[in-house]
Amino acid sequence: MGRHVVCNVKELPDGSSKIVSLENRSIGVFHVKSRFYALKNSCPHQGAPLCVGTVTGMTLPSLPGEYLYGKEGEIVRCPWHGWEFDILTGKSIYDPRKCLVKTYDVAVETEEEVKAVETYTVKVEEEKVVVYI
């Protein structure tokens, strides 16, 4: 997959998401607790647009009679049937070893002040100048 600039960091505030189309793939980009994550926008259950689902947290393992809530803003719930996935890993909540959503690498890059000039290889072949692109 190639490199694609999606937006400026300030255009996607913490806790928000954006759906983009990159190389004919629908991808959800999420800003979670000052980090960025990207998931394929398709639920593995029946192909629903997963990334338009509710972003929430979940109950955590705890002792009997205790109810711990955590991972706020890290879980996306499929809008069709409620399947839940961890935005940070792409793994499903109910079966993290077998059911997952494709994740993509995301980086925050700063734009350099000096723009590189695109150059091409030039050769002389039997008195002809040839440019290779």
Automatic annotation (TrEMBL):
Pfam family membership, one: Rieske
Q: Supply the alphabetized keyword list.
A: 2Fe-2S, Iron, Iron-sulfur, Metal-binding
- Whether Iron counts among this entry's keywords is yes
GO MF annotations for this entry? 2 iron, 2 sulfur cluster binding; metal ion binding; monooxygenase activity; oxidoreductase activity, acting on paired donors, with incorporation or reduction of molecular oxygen
Protein's UniProt keywords contain Magnesium = no
Q: Which PROSITE patterns match?
A: RIESKE
Top-level taxon of the source organism: Bacteria
Give start and end of each Rieske domain: 4-109
Q: What is this protein called?
A: Rieske (2Fe-2S) protein
* Taxonomic source organism: Paenibacillus thalictri
